[in-house]
Amino acid sequence: MRLFSVLTATVLLVTRASAQSPVTIESLTEDLARLESVREIKNVQRTFAQLAHYGRFQLMASFFADNGSLRWGAGTGANILDDSDAAAITGPAAIETWLRTDAGKMDGLQPGSLNTWINEQPVITLSADGKSAKGRWHCLRFMGDGKGSSRIEGGIFENQYALVGERWKISLMRYYPLYAGSYRDGWKNVGGKGLPVIPYHYTPDEAGIPILNQKPSAAPEGKSLSPEELVYRISQLNEEDEVRNLVHSMGYYVDRRMWDDVIDLFTPNGTISVDSNTSPPGASGLQSVLNRMGPAGLTRGILNDHPIYQTTVELAPDGLSAIARGLEIGMIGDHANRSAQWQFCTFRHTLVRDPDTSIWKIQNLNYSRLLVAEYAAGWASGGILPARASPPTPPAFLLGFLNYSSSVPRRPESWSPLLREGVHPTSELLPDLARRLLRSSSFDETENLSSAYGFYIDDVRCSLFGDLHAQKGFKASPGIGWYRSPSRITTACAARYGPNTASLNPAPRGSIPFHWRIQLVVLTSHDGRSSTLRGRNLQTGTGLNSTSGFSGLAGFNGGIYHDQMVLEEHEGKTRRKIWSLTIDEFYWNSASWGTGWANVDRASSLSPLIKRRSAMEKRQASGSLENFPPDVSIKDPLFGTRYQGFMGGPPPSVSWPNILPMYWEYRNPVSGRVPSGGTYWGPGCVPCRVKPDWFLTNNGYEEPATGPTLISVNATIAKGDGEIGDVVVVTAKLSAGPEETIWGYVELRKGNRSANLMGEVLLDNEGFASFTVPKGDLKAGQVSQLVVYYAGNDRVKPGRGAVDVLV
Ligand SMILES: *[C@@H]1O[C@H](CO)[C@@H](O)[C@H](O)[C@H]1NC(C)=O
Ligand SMILES: *[C@@H]1O[C@H](CO)[C@@H](O)[C@H](O)[C@H]1NC(C)=O
Ligand SMILES: *[C@@H]1O[C@H](CO)[C@@H](O)[C@H](O)[C@H]1NC(C)=O
Ligand SMILES: *[C@@H]1O[C@H](CO)[C@@H](O)[C@H](O)[C@H]1NC(C)=O
Ligand SMILES: *[C@@H]1O[C@H](CO)[C@@H](O)[C@H](O)[C@H]1NC(C)=O
Ligand SMILES: *[C@@H]1O[C@H](CO)[C@@H](O)[C@H](O)[C@H]1NC(C)=O
Ligand SMILES: *[C@@H]1O[C@H](CO)[C@@H](O)[C@H](O)[C@H]1NC(C)=O
Ligand SMILES: *[C@@H]1O[C@H](CO)[C@@H](O)[C@H](O)[C@H]1NC(C)=O
Ligand SMILES: *[C@@H]1O[C@H](CO)[C@@H](O)[C@H](O)[C@H]1NC(C)=O
């Protein structure tokens, strides 16, 4: 059987690459527990932040272990790193009191108050025994009391977590404050001094340690899971990845007002709800809601960004539906009339999986507005919406987090076989489960590395982020081009940003540019060894003064990362590493905190306006790369118009409020639609079209699929030869994205995958296959569903197409 020989080849590759020892039920059980732990820790921290929005202090405190503590650096002492002046509170009861007191009237409960708490960009480190963990996060709070007072606080968490019984708890929440201020004046460095590097709990090498296969480790205490339970739980993780990607992709389409792509993501009766007003089901209802944001496409001066933060996902036990919950902050503006808005929304979206194709779609986008404010007036006085006299009711929290003290089982006991790609002979099940688990851990390892990079670049630690790259990995230096290898990346960075950046323990810095790498869409290869990442770069910063010059960094810039990551074997170690790092920036920026992204006029009521600030990276650069040419220049003619308008690219340059093109590494995840206007740049790394030997596929890695494999199927009744009589001719056409090759066999079955096999056919070069079925094989007078299955290959996803036939 050709079909299974394809699968076997893949399985062997995985076994060789990722496991020294054979995959067993025990090793899978242990690895699964590790990955589920990493996810639960993220869910704990993200839900903690979600609870703050609604002043649920008791529940927030219930996430702490009984002897867990909170240390909240006050930043008034000699040194932010010095614990001695940090508030130190132990135990859930005292922590609840502290949280409540700290929020005061800015608790999200008082009429007009706002308590937005963001925790993002996690680097999670699980201990070897799987019982404790550390996590670094960005933390940012936008708060207001509705009566004119506001607070902004930003900094870094270096937290610790412990497995207590069945659940992960916070054992230490350690906050290092870096900047603070108010809506009126913006923010600046706490203490008005230079800021140290907050110690990292990881090294570049450690940041890439795979989650799985941590041998030797403690012997498993519990019993091993059954194969069925493993299938169930691993499938749920795989599906969770798809859901998260879909929600985050939707956000990017909304930002660019790509309404056709947004609508493609919905079921035929999909809806959008805002504050419980729900659109009529279907495309026209969706279109009318989307049109309220404006017509399709962005024109000069329009900002429609909706960054998505701290998404948590809960799968239904049957794996056919899911809820995604999180925070979306609309940053809306029209530069032409100098108007802008903040829109703080909780979302709680419902998604469903099409059981036929296994493709996830949106059933309902559901937004509950926390607060909407004009940029000029801000959120301190309650904004313009919603007018609310009583405290808001939070949309339900996920994953049993509303009662975190109770010992809820971490996963349902029941199971159902949810293998996306059909059934395999038992002997192939365990290696295939290992591959599926690796695909999900690739998601978290990619986020880990992405976040680790984000923190290092904030602190401009050249050698540290150089070392996050693979030996043959490459990184773009904005406006210049790509440098390949950790040492060349490090040298380029130091040449550009100056010698202080090479020191592991640099002097305090007057200003820090923050790179929030959030809203990740991670496309994982079939074997789980490589991934393609799209991420938002929401750049902000802090400085000594909030209101002047470069140090007046309390504004925002927007960019997009297009990266790839690989599992590299080097000097006997296996590590997840950055293969390719590319940033397209800046799509927009705030001239200052005062004026925001739409040049809002706040001069009458606020502090003096700040001088217009050009690209932050450029300003910060103190050196020059003239004597250190890149391996690939963004001026390379082979890029064509790819970098036209971007800093360093071919003229004319395009800067906000003009609109730069936005590029895509994937097709629409539901419809397979290819982004128009030459903005599709996939598959493969951005500089790969200039350097084909940089393609993953030329380096022993698989290129992740860029979207669904679509199968359209036709059936016609034709005259067979005399002996057979009439036949049903079934024709299938398979398609994926440009430059994605479909090859292999397709099967025709009557009904589902375990039902009758009616034929197996090799695809032709155009992706067509045709089957001839004797009419007598189908029940006369009855509709038969004929299904064409494709197992996928190392470049494209599996697919399924069906046709109903009445003979
Ligand atoms: C907290 O309690 C756990 C279990 O009782 C114990 O293992 C741990 O050492 C304690 N932590 C601290 C900081 O006391
Ligand atoms: C949408 O349509 C599907 C299929 O017809 C149906 O099962 C489902 O109940 C509908 N959902 C809503 C919210 O109308
Ligand atoms: C500015 O233009 C937008 C449309 O882009 C409109 O919605 C908004 O009301 C206008 N604001 C002002 C203050 O005129
Ligand atoms: C949207 O969310 C609100 C608030 O949680 C809820 O009351 C409403 O039922 C949801 N709407 C849909 C269509 O799910
Ligand atoms: C939480 O769970 C515990 C233990 O199951 C139970 O005693 C308690 O009443 C629950 N609390 C809430 C608010 O549901
Ligand atoms: C993240 O990096 C740490 C080292 O800092 C490593 O131990 C851990 O396994 C990685 N976690 C994930 C989720 O990749
Ligand atoms: C910060 O502001 C003070 C006045 O408030 C000014 O003297 C100082 O030069 C400013 N520093 C910077 C770095 O702009
Ligand atoms: C199905 O039939 C229609 C009409 O004859 C034709 O346009 C289309 O190309 C066919 N599709 C396939 C997959 O054969
Ligand atoms: C597959 O089809 C067979 C035969 O029609 C049926 O008995 C079986 O329940 C189906 N299985 C699933 C998972 O739908």
UniProtKB/TrEMBL annotation:
Q: What is this protein called?
A: SnoaL-like domain-containing protein
Pfam families under this entry?
SnoaL_4
Q: Which UniProt keywords apply?
A: Signal
Q: Which domain of life is it from?
A: Eukaryota
Q: Where is the SnoaL-like domain?
A: 34-173, 236-365
Q: Which InterPro entries match?
A: NTF2-like_dom_sf, SnoaL-like
Q: Which organism is it from?
A: Rhypophila decipiens
Q: Secretion signal: which residues?
A: 1-19
